[in-house]
Design a protein that fits this description.
5-stranded mixed beta sheet; alpha+beta; 7-stranded mixed beta sheet; Fumarylacetoacetate hydrolase, domain 2
Length: 265
């Protein structure tokens, strides 16, 4: 089986499972052989889904802590794709029935005001900072469709191919005068039904929330791709995933960036 056919068939399988609201599962013959192949499947999968959910409008970062990387046998973060129709504004209402298992994370979101083309790298934090138009407190919306009982490596590679379970983002109000903020020290928290369920700091995300943006620009550059003005990038979890159900309400706050609110029906 050629790589191209394998990638297409794996992506088609994930698309069918997505549309049928099923857990993600790839047969052995369709399992990505490495991360590069997992990313190829992911992009083909999301290109198909984009016919219904709009074009690529941003990216998510995952595994931005040393502990999560070590647990999955990798030495760098992973990226996922966000589609235009899944970028929402707070306050927002989501239907639990639209998801297999709905989860929320608290993150710093970036909206770009300038392009970061592949020709401009290698990028560092200072360079990508100049391209940032605004920052926002954001919920990452995840739909956890992990098949239980699988080998952890199989789960990890399937998850990357399946876009790391991203189902979009809910953005708070943008903050454009953020340059004076100490983003590493910024405190973030999440409450569900009025009860604190998790907290952390900007430094939990690769030491600073804009370090993942530099990593993303460089990783996409390796693939011949770039970031464009207007894109939204969520930079990694300050609060780890929390499962929610119909009837729940959730709020997040990030010091200096405000907050966002979400209702589940």
């Amino acid at each position: 089986m050629s790589v191209n056919v394998k990638v297409q068939q794996a992506a088609q399988t994930l698309s069918e499972q997505f549309r049928a609201n099923r857990l993600y599962f790839l047969e052995d013959r369709l399992m990505p052989s490495d991360l590069d192949e997992a990313y190829s499947i992911q992009r083909e999968f999301q290109t198909d889904i984009s016919q219904e959910q709009g074009p690529i409008a941003g990216y998510k970062l995952a595994y931005t802590t040393a502990a999560s990387q070590q647990a999955n046998g990798v030495s760098e973060p992973c990226l996922g794709i966000m589609l235009a129709d899944n970028i929402r504004q707070s306050p927002c209402t989501l239907a639990a029935s639209d998801f297999v298992q709905l989860g929320l994370e608290c993150e710093v979101a970036v909206r770009l005001g300038a392009d970061l083309p592949p020709s401009g790298g290698p990028y560092d934090r200072g360079m990508v900072t100049e391209a940032v138009a605004s920052l926002t407190a954001a919920f990452e919306i995840i739909d956890i469709r992990r098949t239980p009982g699988q080998d952890p490596k199989v789960q990890f590679m399937t998850g990357v191919a399946a876009n790391i379970f991203n189902a979009g983002v809910v953005l708070g109000e943008p903050v454009s005068d953020w340059l004076g903020l100490d983003l590493s020290a910024a405190y973030g928290s999440m409450t569900i039904n009025g009860e604190m369920v998790g907290d952390g700091h900007g430094s939990d995300v690769m030491g600073h929330p804009l370090e993942p943006l530099a990593w993303l620009a460089n990783k996409l550059s390796e693939q011949g791709l770039g970031l464009t003005a207007g894109m939204v990038i969520i930079t990694g979890s300050i609060v780890s995933p929390k499962i929610v159900k119909a009837g729940d309400t959730a709020s997040i706050m990030i010091e200096g960036l405000g907050g966002a609110d979400l209702n589940i029906v």
